[in-house]
Give the backbone structure.
Amino acid sequence: MRISPHLTFDGHCKAAFLVYHRIFGGDLTTMLTYGDSPMASQIDSTWHDRIAHATLSLGDVELTGADVPPQDYGRPQGFFVTLTLDSPARAESIFNALAIEGNVHLPFRQTFWSPGFGVVVDRFGVPWELNSTHEPPNSLANGNVLDSNRSMPEAAVIPELGYDDVSEAVSWLCSTFGFKQRLLIGNHRAQLSIPNGGALVVTQRALAPVVQAECPSCHAIMVRVQDVDAHRQHAAQRGAKILSLPRDYPYGERQYSVEDLAGHRWIFSQSIADVDPASWGGKLVEG
């Protein structure tokens, strides 16, 4: 037996599934309009461009949807589509992408049952629960302080920039500025090495909420520190706005985020384990 969520829309099915495909990945296997279906002769011509059936395949799960006539459409209520991921970081990225122009009911955060959980209704009115189950490795229990982690660049300060197309951005930055690919994470995130020891993180803009309206490409500056909890405590005592408390991630880092006096977003990161990037979905390109 297999259960597949089927979503109905008031004419926005195509737009919704293109957004879901960009956010979730997978294969968009069906996008059938009423005009191309056997029902074309029975449907008003104004409906021929609307979607009779859409399918997004995500491994063993299929998300399906369709546009329905106004008299049959009702805004979704009484249910949530729940997505459970091993990685809290990936779950939070998807949550943030769904929240763009949507309505956050419960901010993504750690709960007693999950390292990361949040509830959001997206711009198309579909309610989602994002849940994560993976407990990342933590060497802090043994009192270890690590200077390096295979999943992270060696640089101490790492800018993170958002682009609409990560593959295109990586190709352009490498060919134009002489950067080199270090690590690829699906088609939504990459690490680049900069000559003379620098590093840059490139991320898909849809998964990186804009920090400043006047700088739509900017996302955050990441700084690696020895003791992230002590750093957060000091920043809080100095009046900094803490955006997220220190949390362990499956790629071997413990991080918190903070906003400075001008509204810029900073991420402070401590290596807590030496993690093989392949264990959390990364592909190491450079040694």
